[in-house]
Design goal:
The complex is a heterodimer of chains A (391) and B (328). By secondary structure, chain A is an alpha/beta fold. Chain A contains 16 helices and twelve strands. Chain A has helices at residues 2-7, 10-18, 20-54, 60-64, 78-92, 103-111, 126-130, 164-171, 181-186, 207-219, 221-225, 243-253, 263-269, 288-300, 338-353, 369-382; strands at residues 68-73, 95-99, 117-120, 137-151, 161-162, 198-202, 239-241, 257-262, 272-273, 275-277, 283-284, 324-332. In chain A, the strands form two sheets. In chain A, strands 1, 2, 3, 4, 6, 7, 8, 9 and 12 form a nine-stranded mixed beta sheet that branches. In chain A, helix 8 (164-171) packs across helix 10. The longest helix of chain A is centred in the first third of the chain and has 35 residues, at 20-54. By secondary structure, chain B is mainly alpha-helical. Chain B has helices spanning 2-25, 27-65, 85-116, 119-131, 137-163, 181-205, 209-217, 222-251, 254-259, 277-284, 291-322. In chain B, helix 1 crosses helix 2, helix 3 (85-116) crosses helix 10 and helix 4 (119-131) runs antiparallel to helix 6 (181-205). Chain B starts with a helix and ends in a 6-residue tail after the last helix. The chains are: A alpha/beta (391), B mainly alpha (328). Chains A and B meet through helix 3, helix 6, strand 7 and helix 12 of A and helix 2, helix 5 and helix 10 of B.
């Protein structure tokens, strides 16, 4: 770039006008520069493409040092993924570039094979699975996300208690006052104010909304019929705020507001959260341990050949918190690049062992131990574990 | 008529002759000419490509829902029904509201700066007004959430409802949540104010001195001089500035999304949450997975594209009509 630029210094412009040959040479130089840049770019891409086949045999550790894995998808688990990728890079030298562009975008990019792995808050549908260009896709749960029902009511000594049906009725606009008889019945001894309920929901499509509406669809047939389950709904009432932080701010500012947010935002902002009645009839506060229990309860029922595209809302068990969900990493079953396949599987294996320790400090719930051992065995079925000496 | 036409043509016709002479003598000139012509063509070509791309991508939705896409208000991604009427309505209403608030303010600022302000004050005040245009949209949005919306909810809205007793007036009915069409209009008003003020100030300064002197000579007070002689002279230029502001308000995304309440519903009340076309796209595009959903968002984009182009065309035409007044 700078070479033709220098040739065209102010002093030489006049010369160029008089002697067009100079100009032609400058133009040629430009062409050369462009050609050079293109060649450099091409060699880069061919290098990454080659790295797989060239180094299949052995010594993957050294060969993979320079290459990078790319992924795209969900924003919800991004804080923990980001930490994982940093820790993993520090430990192994394998860099993982992750773009938190949203679950939908992640699924699309994985289907087009423009990234090595995807990530999603909602499991892929059968149609999406069928559309993937690289063959069958496997879902690997990484952590459990917890969605809390937060509210703003002054002067209450204890957290309010809500049943699934009551939550559905509030968010459907069928309960509009805090002192509605159905809420009073759930909260004996609590004086609920005669105030309007303001429902706050996410304005943008979101995995959090998916989990929340998944739960409401599970506990309320009326909700399932309409508005149903999705990342973005046709909300019957309330107003939309952008992001978990937008919903949090709105609840915090507005007396009488109620909304659903991820656990981390509740804690950071000191919002009051409702105890939700689980399938065993217990009222449980949102917490990582209760969500892990939910995952445990749901997983116990899974058949051996499950593909882990499962919902864990309203799962059985006395200690379970009912509004929780896996978030998934999406990998191709038959990754053609065997080096990448091994690197990805090694990373997920690490995430199941060392990585799980990060979960609670970032307000995600770790996977239950029983599930981790099942998932690790599943990883071994894709890429056999390396001999201990090589690791 | 013919004289003036010939006179105006003469200087124009000289340019090609001279350039043709150079063209014949220098290959370098030809290269420069084609290079710059290429650069110049990039912009309209890009515009056409963007328009084509947006319309083509939105076509499945337009084909499925027809005109109904812009006239129905059911937006249900789960069921696959999309109607953008609330967003179109919200875009137009929030922008109009912004104009109603911002125009008198901006014209007032411009009149003060061009007619009354002492000389040392003019540049600093004008600078600060222009600075409003440099604040990022998302900062306005945060300010809106944390400052403007609470003030509206706890002070302005109760005042209108309870002190002025307008709670049954349709424009101010319904509960006062805070995030609302009114909040969006206020944010937009602040954001477009510097544009209108800057253009108006330029236009007012371009009013000939003789215009003012004539009015003063007839015995007008300073205020009468501005009202009767300066403003009418600058009228079309001011309108141009206002429409430039409108063009900006129509497309503003981030700040509006953060305060408008994002609800797909047409409500007569300014206190009710609403939606704008730009906000819909910003909110839903990242996680839109079904083809029809994406097509619908693209169709909303196409609609916004048309509205913005029409408004900008009108602005150009109006500014051009004032003659000699340059806008930034």
């Amino acid at each position: 770039m700078t070479v033709p630029g220098r040739l065209h210094s102010v002093a030489s412009i006049r010369q160029d006008l008089m002697f067009p040959t100079h100009l032609e040479s400058a133009v040629k130089l430009w062409h050369l520069a462009i050609a050079f840049a293109a060649a450099a770019a091409a060699s880069c891409t061919s290098k990454t493409a080659r790295s797989g086949s060239d180094t299949t045999g052995g010594g993957t550790r050294t060969a993979s040092g320079g290459s990078a894995l790319t992924g795209a998808g969900a924003t919800f688990p991004f804080p923990i993924y980001d930490r994982w990728f940093h820790e993993y890079a520090a430990k192994t030298g394998i860099k993982i570039n992750y773009q938190p562009i949203g679950s939908g975008g992640g699924i699309k990019q994985l289907s087009e094979q423009t990234v090595d792995f995807g990530a999603s808050d909602a499991p892929m549908t059968d149609a999406e699975m069928a559309g993937a260009k690289g063959g069958p896709i496997m879902h690997f749960p990484t952590v459990v996300g917890v969605v809390a029902v937060a509210y703003n009511l002054a002067g209450l000594a204890q957290p309010i208690r809500l049943s699934g049906a009551a939550v559905a009725d509030i968010f459907a606009g069928r309960i509009t006052k805090w002192n509605d008889s159905r809420l009073v019945a759930l909260n004996p001894g609590v004086t609920l104010p005669n105030a309007d309920i303001l429902v706050v929901h996410r304005s943008e499509a979101s995995g959090t909304t998916y989990v929340f509406s998944d739960y409401l669809s599970a506990v309320s047939p009326r909700w399932k019929a309409s508005p149903g389950r999705g990342k973005e709904l046709s909300w019957p009432t309330g107003l939309g705020a952008k992001g978990n932080d937008g919903v949090t701010a709105q609840i915090k500012q507005t007396p009488g507001a109620v909304g659903y947010v991820e656990l981390a935002y509740v804690k950071q902002n000191g919002l009051a959260t409702a105890l939700i009645q689980n399938s065993a009839g217990q009222f449980v506060a949102p917490a990582a341990s209760a969500a892990t229990a939910a995952a445990e309860g749901a997983v116990a029922k899974l058949p051996a050949n499950t593909d882990y595209r499962v919902s864990i809302v309203n799962s059985p068990g006395a200690q379970t918190y009912p509004i929780a969900s896996f978030t998934w990493l999406l990998l191709y079953r038959n990754e053609p690049d065997t080096v990448k396949a091994r690197e990805l599987v090694d990373f997920v294996r690490w995430a199941y062992t060392d990585g799980q320790k990060d979960a609670e400090s970032l307000d995600y719930a770790p996977l239950p131990k029983s599930l981790v051992s099942r998932l690790t065995a599943r990883l071994d079925s894709i890429v056999p574990r390396r001999p201990a000496a090589a690791r | 008529m013919t004289d003036s036409a010939a006179a105006s043509r003469t200087p124009v016709s000289q340019t090609p002759v001279s350039s043709r002479r150079i063209e014949g003598s220098s290959a370098g000139d030809r290269v420069y000419r084609w290079t710059t012509a290429g650069f110049a063509m990039v912009v309209p070509i890009l515009l056409c490509l963007i328009a084509w791309e947006v319309f083509a991508a939105g076509w499945p939705a337009l084909a499925k829902f027809g005109v109904g896409f812009f006239t129905t208000s059911d937006w249900d991604p789960v069921a696959g029904n999309f109607g953008a009427a609330p967003a179109v309505f919200g875009t137009l209403v929030s922008s109009l509201l912004a104009l109603i608030i911002a125009t008198p303010l901006a014209v007032g600022v411009a009149i003060f700066l061009s007619e009354f302000a002492p000389r040392p004050l003019r540049q600093p005040v004008a600078f600060f007004v222009d600075l409003l245009a440099a604040i990022p949209s998302v900062v306005y949005g945060l300010w809106g959430i944390l400052v403007l919306v609470p003030i509206l909810r706890s002070t302005v809205m109760p005042f209108i409802k309870n002190t002025l007793h307008l709670e049954n007036f349709p424009l101010f009915s319904g509960p006062a949540y805070g995030p609302s069409m009114l909040a969006a209009g206020c944010i937009l008003a602040i954001m477009i104010l510097p544009y209108i003020a800057a253009v108006t100030r330029e236009v007012l300064m371009a009013v000939p001195r003789s215009q003012r002197e004539a009015a003063l000579a007839l015995g007008a007070t300073r205020w009468e001089m501005i009202w009767a002689a300066v403003l009418p002279y600058a009228r079309s230029g001011i309108i141009g500035g206002v429409i430039l502001g409108l063009g900006r308000a129509l497309g503003e995304t981030m700040a509006v999304t953060m305060v408008i309440g994002n609800r797909h519903e047409i409500s007569a009340s300014l206190f009710a949450p609403g939606y704008t076309m730009a906000s819909v796209i910003a909110n839903e595009f990242t996680e839109a997975t079904s083809d029809l959903h994406i097509a619908s968002l693209m169709a909303v984009g196409a609609g916004l594209f048309i509205v913005t182009i029409v408004v900008n065309a009108i602005a150009r035409w109006l500014v051009w009509r004032t003659g000699g007044v340059k806008t930034a």
